[in-house]
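Last lecture ended with a question: if I hand you only a sequence, what can you say about the shape of the protein? Today we answer it with a concrete record. The protein is Protein kinase domain-containing protein. Below, first the input exactly as provided, then the predicted structure, then a couple of comments.
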Amino acid sequence: MLERLPTVNGQFPCYDTCAFLYIQMQLCTHSPRGWLRDNQILPREPRRIDSIFKQIVEGVAYIHGRGVIHRDLKPDNILFDQAGKIRVCDMGIASGFKKLEGHEMTETRTAISTPLYSAPEQNYWRYNSKVDIFSIGLILAELSVRMTVEERKKIFDNYRRGIPNDDLIFDYEESRDLICYLTKFDSKERLTCQEIFEFFE
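The predicted structure:
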């Protein structure tokens, strides 16, 4: 049982045996979630969508390049710094992965994520880093198509079931085919981060 430290004038006293950990982080006050909310009415600028998404892919490529799966990518876990650059955050449920002869191994993992943005295989315990690719495909869909909360759930569930959303109206039409490649039901058919970069060339 932890003993409550006595306070002196409302402050915790410091002793020679006290140790404190201070974490300094970059101040980020905005996220794509706020950008989506603020740009719900008027058509969205394709160049801004393109910029946001490419930076997200760069962040995910960096994470994957270090043998880590984020497992919970969503607009709330992506931030804009004061210069407007993307920062991928909240690595609280990230997991490492292994490679064998240059190929990533599919491993047994916990079924943990935000269900709305999760890949279909995240419910079945065995998956690899392609779950992050599925999630950023949904994020790109949300950036490219103005949708209500109810529409978003239906659209995302369709992608999760392998049902194409052919009737969607895109503000960023160039993303339509890319989203299809990112949200393939079979994870083996999804693009890697490198292949996404090549898609834009």
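Comments.
1. The mean pLDDT is 85.
2. The chain is about 35% helix and 10% strand.
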